[in-house]
Amino acid sequence: VRVSAKAVYSKYSIEPASLIDFGAMIKGTKKTQTVVLENKGMLSFRFRIQQAPEDASALEGKRYEKPCTTLPGCSRHSSSHQPLLELFLQGHLTLGMFTVSPCSGSISPWGQQKITVECLAGQEGTCEEQLYIDITGR
Q1: pTM for the whole thing?
Q2: Per-residue confidence at 116, pLDDT binned at 50, 70, 90?
Q3: From the CB of residue 75, how many other CB atoms can be counted at a distance below 10 Å?
């Protein structure tokens, strides 16, 4: 009996890999930008997008989640984070002036998912949000 296996892990790319800047916007207007999450590996994987914790910079070295982008948006909310099950069940995530969709899903090998980040300019001033993309098996 011959037995063989190949151990692999999830490989992916995120474009753009850093800042998404919507620039100056007139109050009440809407702009949309896209982030592409691509599966470059041999296995399907699930992803979920969530708001970074308040102390994200302190946790960055300790967590395995990859920061996907920093967004200019409204200041952080002091409310608690949504339960994980709720994140998996919803199709979009709204943080201040920003709506991200889809915020969870599955990508097959060599597939990709376009993630839409929509900004509806609300209050005046410069605002920012930070998101994390969590990928299973990375």
Answers
A1: 0.69
A2: very high
A3: 12
